[in-house]
Amino acid sequence: MMRLRLPGVLALMLLAMPVSSLPRMAAAAPAVASAITVEGNRRVESDTIRSYFKPGPTGTLDAGQVDGGLKALVQTGLFADVKIDRQGGRLIVRVVENPVIGRVAFEGNKKVKDEQLTAEVQSKPRGTLSRPMVQSDAQRIAEIYRRSGRYDVRVTPEIIEQPNNRVDLVFTIEEGVKTGVKSISFVGNNAYSAARLRDVIKTHATNWLSFLGNNDVYDPDRVEADRDLIRRFYLKNGYADIQVVAALSEYDPDQKGFLVTFQIEEGQQYRVSSVQFQSSVAALDANTLRGYSRVNVGALYNVEQLEKSVEEMQIEASRRGFAFAVVRPRGDRNLEAHTVAIVFQVDEGPRTYIERITIRGNTRTRDYVIRREFDLSEGDAYNRALVDRAERRLKNLDFFKEVKITAEPGSSSDRVILVVNLEEKSTGDLSVSGGYSTTDGALGEVSVSERNFLGRGLYAKASVSYGQYSRGVSLSFVEPYLLDNRIALGLDVYYKQQLANSYTSYGVTTIGFSPRLGFQLREDLSLQLRYSLYRQEISLPSYYKNCNNNTANSLLAFNPTPAYIKSVLGGVDPTNSTSSGYYGWGCYGDGESSLPVRKELSDGAALTSALGYTLSYNTLDNNKNPTDGLLIDWKQDFAGVGGNVSYLKSAVDAKYYSPLVADIVGIIHLQGGMLNKIGDKDLRMLDHFQMGPSLVRGFASNGIGARDITYASLGATGDALGGTKYWGASAELQMPFWFLPKEVGLKGAVYADAGSLWGYQGPTSWAATGEVNTATCKCGLLYDDSKVVRSSVGVGLIWASPFGPLRFDYAVPLSKGKYDTVQEFRFGGGTSF
Length: 833
Fold this sequence. Notes:
Layout: H1 6-16, H2 21-27, E1 31-32, E2 36-39, H3 46-50, E3 60-61, H4 63-75, E4 79-87, E5 90-97, E6 100-107, H5 114-120, H6 131-147, E7 154-162, E8 166-174, E9 180-187, H7 194-198, H8 220-235, E10 243-252, E11 257-265, E12 271-279, H9 303-319, E13 325-334, E14 339-348, E15 353-360, H10 367-371, H11 384-396, E16 400-409, E17 415-424, E18 428-437, E19 441-453, E20 458-467, E21 470-479, E22 487-498, E23 507-522, E24 525-539, H12 562-567, H13 595-603, E25 606-618, E26 629-643, E27 647-659, E28 665-677, E29 706-708, E30 720-722, E31 725-736, E32 746-758, E33 783-784, E34 790-801, E35 804-815, E36 825-832
Parallel strand pairs: 2-5, 6-8, 9-11, 12-14, 15-17
Antiparallel strand pairs: 1-3, 4-5, 7-8, 10-11, 13-14, 16-17, 18-19, 18-36, 19-20, 20-21, 21-22, 22-23, 23-24, 24-25, 25-26, 26-27, 27-28, 28-31, 29-30, 29-33, 31-32, 32-34, 34-35, 35-36
């Protein structure tokens, strides 16, 4: 029996084993965690690098853990290169650190400031240089320029080596020329012209006024948003099947700009055939919500009215205790009759509560300014209608460039977190305004305003104006949430001086203040309560103050004697046929101001203390340039709460806008007012309504109504006296000039006006103390106060110019009072720059 020694047995076993197995056994040998050597690091601590290699429970590192640590180190961006080596049971980590950025600079940028670019790039001074991040920053800079319409921009990053492993990062920018939109066209639009649709969207084609704005700059995001604006426009005008199939943008190298084409499939226009209400909530009768629907049978299908109806109904259901009720509208189309049957379905929604409201992006605006726009808070039932309303309110504040409210999952399935993402914008304005009108002459104004004062949502404004015939200073302040309630508290303090001009012989100086409270009763209905306290005083040039028989009046050629005044210029007292000299025309023989003017001058300054309110109903589609909707203002002011003036003044003003055909907008304007005497105090002339082109175009300022005719037999009339009653009606058609680009902002108008002002109740007689002829010249008043209807027809030119809104009117009176003052041409406008 052969006996083998142990070394021989081991040798035979090794020879029998495959050769390829030896390296695998060596590779599988785990490294000990403590046996990790770091090489090449200068700033990063070795222990920090070792921490990326986490051993298992046995204290050793397998291949997967080493690979994970390697990837984690690379992802830190701290190293240009990372290598792993093994020497026996030791792991060697060799690193090459990225350099540190000393400074980040921009060269060649003229259109975008360094501050804006610095805020956008991720590479920062004292940070680690990452070449992928540098390339990403270059692309981001190019994107910023593309947003401003410069598609030829080139951004070249340059890394300049510095001692001690530091670098300077310089972005060299070739800005290129501005790339604009050269044309905007529409395909498939039959119901509305291209000019009308261009008025809907935000993107404009380049024209000779484009240097004043940037809406002609090509922005793909804005073009995409325009698609939605077009779709919404059709949806609110009955086109339920509307599809804006595409918005094609093509760069034309010959025109060096983009050609934008919107492809539209309009479909048919639908009307509402029926409106029904259904509910699956047992305790809620859906028909009780009918009063909150804005959808009417027979009306055009209007998605905006539908959405507002859903919102109002859902909020009302929440008020009644059905916090989780959800109103879902359904429209059943009749393709042959082109009608839609609307069904509002009320269902029980998921029971979800608001866990938290998180606000992001408000660096200046206080949190509470944002939170108070919500009608719900933490712990309340989640109501999407109320969230949408809050988002709309935040947008209407005009504090933010962007507002987006999203719902994220909370800590449990019945909890949501509302995230309010905001991007703030500048809310301060420094305005220098200039204008000219045929009434006020040249006028300049400087004003400073802040819509979000101190980040607290307050409004403040100070302005100073100076012109030919009008001057003034005013301060305004508004707290929109008084004592955390949705009540606006405002205060106006003002000083105004209206000088004598070709329409009035006197000047008026007014100084006062007016606090007010505003209540938003509904989205279309508001109420304002106000109190006004002001001091008003008349001023006259010296040559208008003297009666013509005053011997000191040597500047005037016509200066009759008292005997001539009594025998020739005198009149007969209507209560005493034997009297003479009653009217005292001689007091006006040298062109003096009218009796009421000089009487109020003699009486001194008047103090008016008045309470008033305004109730406004507004359904206009656009407050600045309305084309559809109704605006009604009802105002009343009661003077006599202190002061030495008393009256009740009431006025109503209604404007109705309706789109007609071919972009023509029809406007009906009705107005009226009444002034009533209160108590035993006489009405002043200044308390009366003064009317002119604001009532009937074609007449001068204060050109309508009662007028002093005491001196009419000598060839002239005196001042306008005003009236206590007026009415006015106007019909107007506004239309664009189709042969001009829409962006020019020119519109034409044709109109017909009618109205009247009458009922003067001011002073008619006065013993003119201090004048030579007091005994013989009682200074009475003759005036014309006919109720004749004034009417006119005219044309107008309306220009939304870069210098502010301008309007030119030429109107020809068709009927007028005997002593009315005509002014056929009128012009007015101004701007802020």
